[in-house]
Amino acid sequence: MKVMVFHIGADRYALPLWAVARVLPAAALKSIPLAPDYVAGLLDLHGAPVPVIDLSALAGVAPEQLWYDSRIILVDYPVADGGADETTRPLGLLAEHVVGVETIDSAALADAGVSGAPFLGQVAADGAGMLQLITLAQLLAPDVRAQLFPATGEAA
Question: The domain 2-148 is classified under which CATH number: 3.40.50.1260, 2.40.50.180, 3.40.30.10, 1.20.58.100?
């Protein structure tokens, strides 16, 4: 399986490559009042506002700074709960130290055996250490999802 690898603190994490729409340089963001601390702000993407989540802050790790290899990973985030009416919206994920694309053996993935952060998925070990997958559909709590992606016709 191909994955996009990045760091949160000293640890390596990954998103399945099929979930990545684009990778953009870190950019200036507009703040969102009353949003949780891990909501970095809004990205102006060709005139369309895209919410951006700071993955370090979401994981409870103090973001160090923006680095030359910090990126906004643009994904198609599922805003509906599956089924025939599956809807996605663009979501930016601010990641420090984006390494790039790597291949991991799907058979080597194992359950992490931890709870508390539902967005953390399976882990794999390779020559560089452990790599943990991010489960995109469980990234945002329902109330934050509703705040960032209001139903059609509601004000943002």
Answer: 2.40.50.180
pTM of the entire predicted model: 0.83
Distance (Å, rounded) from C-alpha 119 to C-alpha 134? 6
Question: Is the Cα dihedral 14, 25, 147, 83 positive or negative?
Answer: negative
Burial class (CB in 10 A: 0-12, 13-18, 19+), 48: exposed
Residue spans of the chain under pLDDT 70: 63-68, 81-86, 113-116, 152-156
Under a CB-based contact definition with an 8 Å cutoff, are residues 53 and 38 in contact?
Answer: yes
Q: Cβ(121)–Cβ(112) under 8 Å?
A: yes
